Amino acid sequence: MTGRWARWSLRRRLSTSFAAALVTVLLIGVAVFMVALSSLLSGGARTSARAQAEQLASIVATGGLSPPAALESVPADGARLQVIDAATGAVLAGSDVIARHQVLSNSRPPPGHEVVVARGGVLLGDDSSTLVTRSARTPDGRLYVVVVSRPHAVEARTFTSATVLLVIGAAIWVLLVLVMVDRIVRRTLRPVMQIHQDVSRISSAGSTERVTVPPSGDEIAALAQTMNDMLDRLTRADTAGRQLISDASHELRSPLATIRATLETAPAAEQATPSSRVLYQEVLRMQHLVENMLTLAKAADPGLQLVAEDVDLDDLVDLELRRLRQSTPLVVSGSVRAARVRGDPARLGQVLRNLTDNAARYAASQVSIDLRSEDGRAVITVDDDGPGIPVQDREAVFERFSRLQPSRDRDAGGSGLGLAIARTLVGKHGGTVIVGESPRGGARFVMSLALAPPDDSPAQGPGSD
User: Fold this and answer.
1) Chief localization class (predicted)?
2) What is the DSSP letter of 271?
3) Considering the entire predicted model, what is its pTM?
4) Where are the domains of the chain?
5) Among the listed ranges 45-49, 83-87, 121-125, 416-420, which one has the minimum average pLDDT value?
6) What does the pLDDT look like over 20-68, one tens digit per residue?
7) Would you say domain 221-299 falls under CATH 1.10.3720.10?
8) Are 444 and 318 in contact (CB under 8 A)?
9) CA angle 205, 206, 209 (to 5 degrees)
């Protein structure tokens, strides 16, 4: 129960808690009312029975009327009346057949006193009744016992009707209150849901979007303001971090270019030392890393402006197929169909270059690139027959400086930034990049972009509204 309760929404928990508390209070109130009403009705019946017994005893005590005549002078009103000879215990008069043939009470109170017996439970029922026994002495000294047995049938019907009406009324009232409470809780939590939607919409720390602060000035408004303050701090930290990367990349460009130029103007390759050749390769690698860091910093900038023009993806894919065939010993295959998208050709070419370089880096012998149109989108699939990527690591490969263990964590010249750049730039174009398992046994990267609208339709480029 605790686990299920914890999985419920706050609105459901609040409504359920209030409903449980309300029903508990109502049950207690209904129980108290039923006991009080039963006591009130049975008290009225007891008072009526005592009055009848006192009236009948007074008439008998005068001695002016015989017991049957005295009994007939008192209205029964649904009660059973009886006069008994106290000396012999014989029934002298009764209001009905049962009262004339069956002794209703064996009590023999002293003259002028009475015995009251209540039959039944705490609550009135059809079998509950009040029995009043009273003694009366005539002037000639004879002693009689007067008995009044009053069933609670009328009171029981009244009690049942009142209880049914109370329960129905309470149920209707509970439903109305619960509906009202649900609306109040929903209205109260509406700012919280707005905060949730706003935060879900904010895609990155550098976003300029902020949480809507409700005008209520309460704790929820304070929470929204606190979240905005936190987002401001994250934005400043993100901006500072990207600026640092950008500045560092710019500063590293010049010395690396100088070192590279110095090495390239050194003595001929046959006279170069092994250390100088290693140094040259490391300089190239450092330049590649610096360029990637600078590109990633620019791509992560929310204010990045992309060129918006029609791009023939089939031309970009053909270019990559030719480049891989010329620059690698791998078996490179492809299936290319015409597909045009709206975007920045240089950035999309960079994305495709990063995906194909990644495939070539880890492929054992084969790489394939396919381009097709599907459901209004251009889909590029890049497959390799390398070690593949475990399911649990398929999101981690798109993180900065990601390195997987053990099969894909080999030093093959990668900077660990190419896939992060690819996903960021494709996201800027409104597309997606995912990774899965290739039929060749390695990794499969799938890039999806919306096809460009027909020439006679208004086109929207990346970042346009």
Assistant:
1) membrane
2) G
3) 0.50
4) 2-158, 221-299, 309-450
5) 121-125
6) 888 888 889 888 988 888 888 888 888 888 898 888 888 888 887 888 8
7) no
8) no
9) 90
